[in-house]
Design a protein that fits this description.
Layout (H helix, E strand, L loop, with lengths): L14 H6 L1 H4 L5 H10 L1 E5 L5 H11 L3 E6 L23 H12 L4 E6 L7 H5 L4 E4 L4 H14 L3 E7 L2 E7 L7 H4 L12 H4 L5 H18 L8 E6 L4 E6 L21 H4 L13 E2 L2 E4 L1 H9 L4 E5 L3 H6 L5 E2 L17 E5 L4 H12 L5 E4 L2 H8 L8
Helix pairs in contact: 4-5, 4-10
Length: 393
């Protein structure tokens, strides 16, 4: 049965529709009725980045009638390696505006709804309730759990995808009688254990593979045809071009979709994932015993002439793009080059976003370095809050 059966009246196809979607309509599994279902469908894409780009483009091309987009970011030059819905002239524009422009150029009849906001527990249910399918193209654990829980509470299928380096995952969660994301991952990984794509990298083509799989699942859900990935996790290894799948089972003890659910409303997902709120300016925040210094505090101390030892643990090409000075020792070389790091001074470890530097700060602490702090937010925070002329990547 189609996801949108009996939910709302299906629109008729125009003569232009019959021409545009003729390759669909001649498929017995689609036909005129199926194309009407696509035209009447309302799909929400959470994110217009790497996964959201191919996902939204193919859904628009397929004849989805209403496409909602959730994003609050702007286009950066570093996005263009994989976020194919955006182009060089879009750098600095809102991703929502850039994406909507490309989607309506591809399909002028498409109704695009722009949700220019960060998805939160306060607004997710209000946004999701007007859609038939949600496609999760997010890149962080708090939002993935938020999307999952909102979909389960509303009974809306979640076409899920994720990517990292050369590997991707796809599934359909929150479908009737199917497992949800929490059934697969009951607990989030410890903060900092799994680097973001900004820290670990991603093959630019990979989100194209996974995003198209997500779009395929969305269309099958709407048509009620074929076998979706509900109850299965598809694993993509792009480096060796291998696909394999894992059978997923619904967890009867799942707190959101189990028989005795304990989660009946959206929660604080940052807290659930162990991400501490920013400490007040006069409070020294720590993480795994390592003090966290803000870029504003570091700038104040540098300007005050303090003798700090800044250790940059990024790669040489990153240092060439943007740096605030200091000693460059790439993360992988630090254990062999400890003798080069001054033990007599306070060490400020920094990287791109703060994850690699946190690991190295902990390593230094374990090796007897007494005064070690981590630069929270890394060079990206410095470029955002201190030096607006600095290149981001």
């Amino acid at each position: 049965m189609s996801t949108i059966d009996s939910l709302h009246e299906l629109p008729e196809l125009t003569d232009d529709d019959l021409v545009r979607y003729s390759r669909h309509i001649i498929l017995p599994e689609v036909g005129i009725e199926g194309q009407r279902q696509l035209k009447g469908a309302r799909v929400l894409c959470v994110g217009t980045g790497g996964l959201g780009s191919p996902l939204a483009l193919y859904l628009a091309a397929a004849g989805i009638g209403t496409l909602g987009l959730v994003d609050f970011d702007v286009v950066d030059a570093s996005n263009l390696q994989r976020q194919i819905i955006h182009a060089t002239p879009d750098i600095g524009r809102k991703k929502l505006d850039s994406a909507a422009e490309k989607l309506t150029a591809l399909n002028p009849e498409l109704h695009v709804i722009k949700h220019d906001t960060r998805l939160t527990s306060a607004n997710a249910l209000g946004i999701f309730k007007d859609y038939d399918v949600v496609a999760d193209g997010t890149d962080n654990f708090p939002t993935r759990y938020l999307v999952n829980d909102a979909c389960v509470l509303l009974g809306i299928p979640n076409a899920y995808g994720s990517i990292f380096r050369f590997e991707g995952q796809a599934s359909v969660f929150a479908a009737p009688d199917a497992p949800c994301y929490r059934c697969l991952y009951p607990e989030p990984p410890p903060p900092g254990l799994v680097p973001s794509c900004a820290e670990g990298g991603v093959l630019g083509i990979l989100p194209g593979l996974v995003g198209v799989i997500q779009a395929t699942e969305v269309i099958k859900l709407i048509l009620g045809k074929g076998e979706t990935l509900a109850g299965r996790l598809l694993l993509v290894d792009a480096l060796h071009m291998r696909f394999r799948q894992l059978k997923l089972r619904k967890n009867p003890d799942c707190p959101i979709c189990g028989t005795n659910r304990t989660i009946t409303q959206l929660i604080d997902y940052e807290q659930f994932c162990g991400i501490a709120p920013h400490a007040p300016a006069n409070v020294q925040e720590t993480k795994n015993g390592i003090p966290q210094i803000t870029v504003q505090e570091l700038k104040r101390r540098i300007d005050g002439g303090e003798d700090l030892y800044i250790l940059d643990v990024r790669e040489p090409f990153e240092y060439q793009i943007a740096n605030i000075g200091g000693k460059l020792i790439p993360q992988g070389e630090v254990p062999q080059r400890l003798n080069e790091i001054d033990r007599t001074r306070e060490i400020v470890v920094q990287c791109k976003g703060g994850a690699r530097s946190q690991h190295i700060a902990e390593l230094l602490k374990q090796n007897g370095y007494e005064r070690v702090v981590n630069l929270a937010g890394g060079i990206l925070a410095w470029a955002t809050e201190i030096d607006h002329t600095m290149k981001k990547y």
